[in-house]
Amino acid sequence: MSLIEQNQIGFALSAQSDERISAINPSNGETLPGRFSVATPTEADKALQIAQTAWKTYRNCSGKQKAAFLRAIAESIEAIGDTLIQRAVQESGLPEGRITGERGRTCGQLRLFAQLLDEGSWVEAVIDPAMPQRQPLPRPDIRKMLVAMGPVVVFTASNFPLAFSTAGGDTAAALAAGCPVVVKAHESHPGTNALVAAAILNAARKTGMPEGVFSTLYGRGNDLGKWLVEHPMTKAVAFTGSFRGGKALFDLAAKRPEPIPVFAEMGSVNPIFVLPEIMAAQTTPLAQQLAASVNLGAGQFCTNPGLIICLENEYTPAFETALRSAFAQHPAATMLNKSIYENYSQSSASSIREKGVKALVGEDNNAKPFLARPLLAKVQEKDFLKNPRLQEEIFGPFSLLVLCKSPRGMQKVASILQGQLTASLMGTDKDLRASRPLGELLQEKVGRLIYNIVPTGVEVGHAMQHGGPYPASTDARFTSVGTGAIRRFVRPLAFQNCPQRLLPPELRDSNPLRIWRMVDGLYSKKKVNHA
Amino acid sequence: MSLIEQNQIGFALSAQSDERISAINPSNGETLPGRFSVATPTEADKALQIAQTAWKTYRNCSGKQKAAFLRAIAESIEAIGDTLIQRAVQESGLPEGRITGERGRTCGQLRLFAQLLDEGSWVEAVIDPAMPQRQPLPRPDIRKMLVAMGPVVVFTASNFPLAFSTAGGDTAAALAAGCPVVVKAHESHPGTNALVAAAILNAARKTGMPEGVFSTLYGRGNDLGKWLVEHPMTKAVAFTGSFRGGKALFDLAAKRPEPIPVFAEMGSVNPIFVLPEIMAAQTTPLAQQLAASVNLGAGQFCTNPGLIICLENEYTPAFETALRSAFAQHPAATMLNKSIYENYSQSSASSIREKGVKALVGEDNNAKPFLARPLLAKVQEKDFLKNPRLQEEIFGPFSLLVLCKSPRGMQKVASILQGQLTASLMGTDKDLRASRPLGELLQEKVGRLIYNIVPTGVEVGHAMQHGGPYPASTDARFTSVGTGAIRRFVRPLAFQNCPQRLLPPELRDSNPLRIWRMVDGLYSKKKVNHA
């Protein structure tokens, strides 16, 4: 499959500007083939104009039609075969096994949303039938369900070139909801984007979707992002990346004449609380598990554990030694791109210069460009409590061990934490019983509370919550992973006293789609019977 | 019951400042008894500090406990008896029958939320049990449910001194969700607020709720509102009122170090499309129905129909005449307060000076202070399309008839409308069949689409959607009326690999509360069985 270098705007290719971007292979610093056309304001406008037009028909597609589209996307992605895997490996520096697994996840989540649409109950149909005899006033017939909000702009993430990118979770959720998508391609993997975008558009053609249901554009710097977020036809924005990037988009969106929601998943430090009994009993396996989680994918996960909090007692030196030796076993690893590498080098280096922080592994961090060395440091509770900089995320294989004088100290550390995607409690039964107040406190801080597992590895299912209190996400009421992610792009629409034939099938008395509905306050799949 | 003139902060009374406010009876301009203490920054801080402390226990109260609290509030409000009705009548100028009905609605919605809590499924429990054998990786056990976000600040509305005020829908929804509430009392009805707040606190004492679960404060101007919205412990804001007020709070909240959601219901013009066959066939009853809806409660409803759109044909003159005579039958009515009266006088007067607008009823608008005269005007499609000011809400008994040259013209008018709480289609079966594209278009613009009923009268039920695309509301994904309103104040929290005994009852295998849950993608009330 040849590489499309133009912007893909609906079913057309467009290259108005002479400005081009190319990808760099982070493993060797070489420029990869492909000169991708940087989009102009006119091209950005065109993508959203046709998205808006597409929305008018796409939002009325049945669940079956949208499901067929999502499944066709998965098939088209798989049909690219090894070309896609190789390109994503070259553009990300991630190993082939990881990318192959990520393709499986990407197609898996497209198919999971297709299942959700086939089943159909996700629209949350609620029916309060008329009560003409009610006193003092009759009750009118009111029915509501979730409907698509309009065109969605997706900002892709560098750390998952497939699963959080062009056809990733945000795109899958928005398309499932009935919203056309405009993807801003990531500058780190434009080739991967071009291949996947072509696959999506192939699938759109095959399944008869309207032109404009999907477009992708290339940009450099912040211009394109600004045009897309400020475009009056954009109704929501999804973003996965840094706090700075997510916050900038949030601020732009809030200042629009019509403010729109920005779902920015901005990462966090995902603290792990190691409780005393397990620290003494499982010293080495625990240390290895933690070191593996911190170093997975060169630490480039939003759920990477950047803080390990434990008690300082007679078992702590052994735990510290075990962590040091477990960290030392992990080699330096290639990072996704130059700016991520530079950020990691600088922020990890400045972290170990903070007051009271002592490097345990990796103090000598002069690795080769793009290679990140694992870094483990430690600090005392009192210094941690005084220094909010120590809880800022360092994207990469870095973790800070916080040594507390008492269980109360661990509680204090928990109490000053900012909002987090996750927190983990590592403990024996006895530990967990003794630490219930800590667990209670962590519930206030996180989107996902984990027991005796590391936070890396985000399951794509119905129960997943990937999104936590600010600043982990801009909106903790929603998840960016799992089927719940569809809710970000819909709003309830009520019909009052509407004739049956004008109602969407989901709300008709006969329940032709056989979905779960709340009728008069009770859940059922039954038809509505009028007394 | 004597009138408490201090701020009610938890179970304590507080009057740090000498500044006082009093209420004016809009029916006669007289100052009513009661000098209510204006809150200081210290008092505002205190209310939120104790709300935060209360949250830590209140969020863990069972559904039954919270339901008992809500029912006790309803009983305490009813126990105030005629004192409350009389005070609310004096402070609002609304007739006694209306206030008595509103008390019924207020207590009714508290009890409806209590029912929702008793039933318990509103927490949207989702369980994906572990699959240890899954390939290529085992699936961990993940479970999630909705949990309370934290202290909520409620801004009360003048037009519903009970149902959208101190113990109104926002307070009921937030308390039901598990969030303590701090109410900024409305300057128009401080006495009603004092009585209802005391009833809430009585109920809190009786049912053993923590101090700080409810507080109310008095303020003048914007200072108190700003302190409350900017307070770091505030986690969400609910507001019903003007666009200017709602937008100001939204902007304040977006600029906080930790941005928080503002649910502002800012009203709209609620267009009514009168289709041609019904206009000819039902001329007089339709005109009377519309005039009654525009004049209900002196037009002081967020769902008041401010636009009536019809075709200009041989039947239009008769419809216009019928509307004129129906409007003329409605007497001038007392408005809620001086500023609302002045706003109505000015904005209705300037509306009929806009290009092409002609007053049909009420051109001579020099009524007595606080008395609003019904005003009906008309304009041609072409002038309406050119002038966005003509679709701004005029709060009061005002409506603008828009005469269109063709069905396409009606469609054009619909297409330029801003987001609305509601739109209504009045039509025979034949009309509605012929106007499907218009119905489709209106779905994009509104939260509630109504057929052959006027928009005033907002049912408090499960299916109600009260909230529409911006600028009708700041967040169209939520409703401020009905049981769905609880969702504004919660967020999902996931537990991964959590021991059974540490899980909330809603998520335990045994389903001790017998609630509906989604288990492995299927809805049921069953226990979770492990294979």
What is the topological layout?
2 copies of one chain form a homodimer.
Chain A: E1 7-9, E2 12-14, E3 20-21, E4 36-37, H1 41-58, H2 63-80, H3 82-92, H4 96-119, E5 126-128, E6 142-148, E7 152-155, H5 169-177, E8 181-184, H6 190-206, E9 214-217, H7 223-230, E10 236-240, H8 243-255, E11 262-265, E12 272-274, H9 276-281, H10 283-295, E13 307-311, H11 316-328, E14 333-334, H12 338-351, E15 358-361, E16 371-372, E17 375-380, H13 381-386, E18 398-404, H14 407-416, E19 420-426, H15 429-434, H16 436-445, E20 446-451, E21 490-496, E22 517-519, E23 522-524
Parallel strand pairs in A: 5-22, 7-8, 7-10, 8-9, 10-11, 12-13, 12-19, 13-18, 17-18, 19-20
Antiparallel strand pairs in A: 1-2, 1-9, 3-4, 5-6, 6-21, 14-16, 15-17, 22-23
Helix pairs in contact in A: 2-4, 2-6, 3-4, 3-6, 4-5, 10-11, 14-16
